Input
Amino acid sequence: MNANTNIFESYESEVRSYCRNFPTVFTRAKGPLLYDEEGREYIDFFCGAGALNYGHNPDLIRDRLVEYLQCDGVMHALDMYTRPKREFIEFYEEKVLKPRGLNFKLQFPGPTGTNAVEAALKLARKVKGRPGIFALMGAFHGMTLGSIALTTDAASRAGAGVPLEHVTHVPAPYMFPELDTLKYIETLLTDDHSGVEKPAAFILETTQADGGIYPMPAEWLRGLRELCDRHDLLLIVDDVQVGCARTGWFFSFERAGIVPDIVTQSKSIGGYGMPFALVLIKPELDIWEPGEHNGTFRGYQLSMVAAKAGLEIMLNERVEEKVQGRAHIFEEYMKKIEDLAPGKISTRGVGYVWGVDLAGCDGDKAPGTTSKRVLDIAFKNGLIVERVGRGNSVIKVMPELLIDEKTLRKGLDILTDAVRDAVKVR
Output
């Protein structure tokens, strides 16, 4: 591959990451496909790290954005009242929240997932008057200081450069099957010799994504909700990556039948890859003072236009039903992939987010050796996937939610062949 990447390598900061795995220059994209300047086509199972649930350049959203721009609509308004904000709030409340029996107020923080998490943490601490937060091992919640204190990836934490405080990490339920993690958390809260102060809140992803694709059991989630109620803790669900129908429900917590106190959304809530974030707050918890958490680009107007159109697509296309209805396709292919190296490959997932864990194939090689080989072979053959989890040993399979079955199967075939080729090389 002879892509001209010299300008990036010469002048762009060394902090760049994803481009190192995909050494080509992309020029256009549509639906589930990306194209580079050499004319090559790639099936996108990376999905903007979860920001493109409705695919690249959906016609409806594109047309709404163009129309708004051509009419000289307000682009920047801080948190002033505007028509796009009114229309988004009305649609979200009437078409998304009320049909689900949910009652939340909406906060528009800065347009990133980590900013939504920061706002949720600040509010929880303000409401409860306690500085501590409980989070799960394996979590990823963002890269700003409050969020990175929740995140457990060692390399990410090291980049902070300062102590990361006021967070207690507890084992995720998948880590020690013999351990009753809810009882462990209860002990931390009730044992006068636990050495752990009572926190303000418990935050989690109901399916850990960058942690290696681990769906939390529905029964465990219900138990956690009850535990938080019993001990006066707020429950915060981070739906930045696995929300917006990614798991088969618009809110990932719906499969467990629970209602969090605070929910964070970003990525695909922007509809088009537009920067947008929301914090959903139970009304009685909305004790912010005016301007107490703000940002110059909070509630970006064009993102609200795109977000409303994205929600229309989600509802009109019955995306939740489609995602749940195609679970068998992923299960079929994951079984094929496991059978390529029985006992060494494991797979897990829910909805349209799955992981292929190749740690058992590395042997005496460095962690992530096999997964990197799979990523490279897949990219060479026209499929883009990401690596996540401990040692980056898990291939994350995350196609857009509107992908047609033929393209979905083609991408999964490429992935299966890539794993087959990779595990042959020892």
About this structure: The chain has two domains: 6-58+326-424, 73-318. The longest helix spans residues 405-424.
